[in-house]
Amino acid sequence: MSDTQFFTPGAGVTLEEVAAAAGVALPEGADPARVLTAASPLESAGADDLAYMDNARYGEALTRTRAGACLVGPRFAARCPAGTVAIVCRDPYRAYAALLGRLHPDAMRPGPQFGGRGLASGAHIHPEARLEEGVTVDPGAVIGPNAEIGSGTVIGPNAVIGPGVRIGRDCSIGAGTTLSHALLGNRVIIHPGARLGQDGFGFAMGASHLKVPQVGRVIVQDDVEIGANTTIDRGASRDTVVGEGTKIDNLVQIAHNVVIGRHCVIVSGVGISGSTTLEDYVVLGGQVGVVGHLRIGRGSQIAGSSNVNRDVPPGSRWGGTPAKPVRAWFRELTTLARLAERAGQEGSKDAGAGAGRSEPE
């Protein structure tokens, strides 16, 4: 079997460009014009490859690497071998990410799946849809009446863009995605299978449950990324909003009327109930559950698998079920562990005392 490479290498980067991306000067004696053509892990990197290291677990791999250059934190720099140019910087991973996008530009966002540009013959585009020049639509995609799509956007195969949906420029809409009642900004990435704009879960409960029509929209601002098979319900009466620069992982459920601020991070398996607000820069770990009508303050972080059932102040770090400030959570866990250990010791003593008794004949 041939060694298939899915991402085409770019033109490469020079050592001077690597140092500039890291915001540092090249070490003395390094050739600024030397070109690196790929990025690789420490263990497999060769003389033309760029690597990075910022975790003590990989210290041994760093000492043995054959990478042409390595972005490395100050405390590990001395372990870089003589044949590797050490680019010492405070945040190696961030610099590496920026350079990786230049080395493999087609990995930055999903591209056409059919290998071409423009409108594929198997696409179904309503005559009243409006597409700017430079839009790519793969086979099987459906674009409804009065939909608007900006230049540079790619619509993947079998995606469905509903009537009146607006998509900005340079977006990527993944295969099998459905968008309805939605307005998207520029440079939005939606991975395959995501669902945006479907009904929110709204019923007036009673002897028979009366459906509440969901008449709001989903608004996704610029530079948002939404993972595969994530669902974002449209608002019931207000809009569901995802703020600029927010990154949402796979398999996330966002209910109606939720407002998510700018530059939030929401990890896989999260569920956010209706009418909750996340302020800017909030981070929700994997499988966090948030009940409805809450406010999570700016810059707060919630540990994975936690359940949030009350408002969270700005700048907080919470965890647990129900979620609470991490210090209180850790004290609770420590206390429970000590109680369990003590109970186990007392149980062992009782068992030992019982073993020494003899039954009367």
TrEMBL record:
It comes from Methylobacterium aerolatum. InterPro entries: Hexapep, Hexapep_transf_CS, LpxD, Trimer_LpxA-like_sf, UDP_GlcNAc_AcTrfase_non-rep. One of its GO terms (molecular function) is UDP-3-O-[(3R)-3-hydroxyacyl]-glucosamine N-acyltransferase activity. Transmembrane segments: none annotated. The active site is at 256 (proton acceptor). The lineage of its organism: Bacteria, Pseudomonadati, Pseudomonadota, Alphaproteobacteria, Hyphomicrobiales. CDD domains: LbH_LpxD (cd03352). It is an enzyme of class 2 (transferase). Keywords: Acyltransferase, Lipid A biosynthesis, Lipid biosynthesis, Lipid metabolism, Repeat, Transferase. Residues 340-361 are annotated as: Disordered. It comes from the Bacteria. The gene is lpxD. This is UDP-3-O-acylglucosamine N-acyltransferase. The keyword Cell membrane does not apply. Catalyzes the N-acylation of UDP-3-O-acylglucosamine using 3-hydroxyacyl-ACP as the acyl donor. Is involved in the biosynthesis of lipid A, a phosphorylated glycolipid that anchors the lipopolysaccharide to the outer membrane of the cell. Homotrimer. Residues 35-100 form the UDP-3-O-[3-hydroxymyristoyl] glucosamine N-acyltransferase non-repeat region domain. Its EC number is 2.3.1.191. Residues 340-349 have a biased composition (Basic and acidic residues). It holds the Pfam family Hexapep. Pathway: Bacterial outer membrane biogenesis; LPS lipid A biosynthesis. Belongs to the transferase hexapeptide repeat family. LpxD subfamily. The keyword Metal-binding does not apply. It catalyses: a UDP-3-O-[(3R)-3-hydroxyacyl]-alpha-D-glucosamine + a (3R)-hydroxyacyl-[ACP] = a UDP-2-N,3-O-bis[(3R)-3-hydroxyacyl]-alpha-D-glucosamine + holo-[ACP] + H(+).
